[in-house]
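Wed. Picked up where I left off yesterday with Polyadenylate-binding protein-interacting protein 2. The coffee machine is broken again, so keeping this brief.
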Amino acid sequence: MKDPSRSSTSPSIISEDVIINGHSHEDDNPFAEYMWMENEEEFNRQAISLLLKQFLLVVQIEEELWEEEFIERCFQEMLEEEEEHEWFIPARDLPQTMDQIQDQFNDLVISDSSSLEDLVVKSNLNPNAKEFVPGVKYLNI
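Structure written out below (tokens, as returned):
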């Protein structure tokens, strides 16, 4: 907005520029300050394109961070699972001396034939049944 006290019909000289009716002498186009609007659509397209590229980059980085976090959680769960279970450790679990090996062999029981015969006599299985062959279907006749 123009200041009415500065407005006059006679030209005033300010730092070697002549101002007439609020416009400098060098300004031939009174709409010069609005010329940027001429390419506004192209500017908007470029701005939107740039914003879209930045957004896609942010989404990609976020996906990578989620993937890294997921992998880290999987490793952590795997380590916790390993700590929960007792795993076979040869130095701890294998016997150290021949005496210990002999004791383990002595603990093994080999059944005698009389106990096998008792098992067969008490069995509910049909001794006359056909031999089972996987993948073959039998018809009940």
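Quick read: Confidence is low (pLDDT under 50) at residues 10-16.
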